[in-house]
User: What shape does this take?
Amino acid sequence: MIPESFKQDLLNRVDIVDVVSRYVQLKKGGANYLGLCPFHNEKTPSFTVSPAKQFYHCFGCGAHGNAIGFLMAHAGLGYVEAVKELASSAGMQVPEFQPRSPEDAARRERETDLYALMDSAMEFYRAELKKSPRAIAYLKGRGLTGEIAARFRIGYAPDDWQGLRAAFPQYEDKALVECGLVVQGEEGKRYDRFRDRIMFPILSARGAVIGFGGRVLGDGEPKYLNSPETPLFEKGREVYGLVQARDAVRAAGRALVVEGYMDVVALAQFGIGYAVATLGTATTPVHVAKLLRLADELVFCFDGDAAGRKAAWRALEVSLPLAPDSKPVRFLFLPERDDPDSYVRAHGKDAFERLLREAQTLSGFLLAELRAQSDLATPEGRARFLAAAKPHVQRIAAGGLRLQVVKEVAELARVSQQEAERLLELPGAPIYARQAPARAGAPLPLSLEWKLLARAFARPELALEVDPALLGAELPESQALIELRALVEQAPDPARLTDSVLAELIERAAHREVLSRAQAALNFELRLGADEAQSEFRELLAALERREPEADRALRQRVLKGVATADERRRFEEKMNAAHRNRP
Ligand SMILES: [Zn+2]
Assistant: This one.
């Protein structure tokens, strides 16, 4: 593990502008540098780098971090690798990890860096793969070269109940359970979650190991085993293989979503580098939004069986409100008993890409499924068809596509386009007016909580002055402010929380989107000096204390709307009377 003090020295020594400039062409604009974001497709620059604060932020896609984070996300390096790389470019030597005294270790236990732990586990599994002729033979049998195995950092978990003890002498560390590597049995016995499996590390967009997928070598069950949800790993947000696929997705303009990590790796082996996989969950809006930022076209590939079609339908429903006209979404159903892995191995890249080009369009799939549910030969069947189409057509965000679908629906239902529009209850303008998924660059919310949060980044200790009870509980910025407060409380030395260190901390935070947006707002939009920001912060804090308490406000609204119960109305009147009595 890398000592915190070394990391801070390193961040003070390197210049993020130099680091980023190696990969991105930057232009000076005022105090900051601007360039085309390397993490999403864009024509006008929204990627901003602050030399004074040593962090970057993209107002288009929300990418955010310091120099270490940039190397992880852009070069696909692990945390330790990124630190080593930065250190060598700055001529610094990474110190060897010093074992701590027992008291020290106990005190630091809760601060154990789960990312570093996952990184060490990955290195352990990779080393084990080299020692296992059986695992190597298995991968070779699937047509994988050593190069691809290294690119995806594939490893092997040995057939041993406590194999990880070799990598973690402190096998009792509860952090190993917390990050899902070790299972705590009912009688207190601990054992490795993954045994005798090929290990596929799951990386976050910034390149850190956040989970593993393990596949059996033989016929054991379950065939695939994933890490559980942990503080690092939320299945609905992550896709497997994104870091490795990013360049190929940009070059091909296409992202392909498949079901298994073996599919992703096999496709990459056969020259199709733009595939990613969901992680044993249905497609989520986060998945779709993430991929549409990167690619011009999204293709979902599913098995042709009933389960595959059901999963595809779910992906369609999620895509309707997210895909703009400029970015088509399509569906590929493979022949029975084939998956992308077996298909590409049997038929090769060209044949697979031919299938991709012929994949069903979103509208084609939508209409085919709807038609299959109704008998269009009868008036009742056509009415039923219209009713079934309604919620889906309403959700199509792309104006052009929606119009085309309405016309087709009208024709199939034997009504005019106007009649169809009326029956489908389509408003004049699209209900989803925005073309792209919620962007990080959306207008700033103007709540007191938001204003406080942005200014707190001037001197993070300010967050400690906020009384969480006064914050509007339902606002995401309140939750973010509370999390920032906790981060400051946990910091060994809050005075050392520079913007660059904070940028890294908040990348791992639960409310990372709001927090990174706030940090960027203070530095790139409000541009307040630390003293100015601090005095505004204190004024806002006073305003917060004067504000009507949350519960009272909710009560008043219920009374005004006429939905309050008799008891609520009585309480409200009592409060009003009390307020009158207290008035001078
Ligand atoms: Zn971006």
